[in-house]
Design a protein that fits this description.
This protein is an alpha/beta fold. The protein is built from 12 helices and 8 strands. It has a single domain, classed as Phosphoenolpyruvate-binding domains (TIM Barrel).
Amino acid sequence: MPAPINKFKFALREGMMQYGCWAGFADAYATEMLATAEFDWLVIDGEHAPNDVPTIMAQLQVLNGKHSQPVVRLPMGETWLIKQVLDAGAQTLLIPLVESAAQARDLVSAMRYPPAGIRGSGAALARASRFSGIADYVPTANDQMCLLVQVETCAGIEALDDILQVEGVDGVFIGPSDLSADMGFAGNPAAPPVREAIRDALAKIAASDKAAGILAVDPDVAREYRDWGAQFLAVGIDVLMLVSTARATMARWRDGG
């Protein structure tokens, strides 16, 4: 029996539009609820949400068999942490602050078993192999790994052409917030120079053999990004959905209902 098919990787390869949402509560119950909306992909965020390996694994468990495909964002591209979340069952990783082709190649290597990479092959006791229930997991897992790298600094934009040449990178995700800050427009990704950089980057990625990704919670901005070439597009953040609805509800009743 081979490793499970990575449906998200397949969809990107086939050029299918994929709409996603951020899962930031670091809680399996909340992520399971979010999955009922049937977003194509959900980001289990380990960079800006209080997740660790056990909470990430719990969310992978509740998403098993759901339409929404899990994308795990790690706080950094550390080899040991990549190994742990892959063994926990993740197949698609989103790694922040990638600024060079060399860095991207290291990430590809960390996600693959030798001789193609350096991932430790102790999958016998791991959830990824169904605890040795998938007899051919190790020889087949590499093909199902999906790497999404975040380009979100001026250095990353400058290295984009080289990053796009790295075999094993499946998609490049542009981070508007960090990019705008690095360009001197902190908190303002709508600044014209930032918009121009985003438009050019998305077009360049879309013209390559990689998929282009980005996040926008404003529907008009999201449509614009889609028109510029975004293929995997995050259109919501669960934390913001909750607080905006809660605040609007209380404001309505504070004003007399």
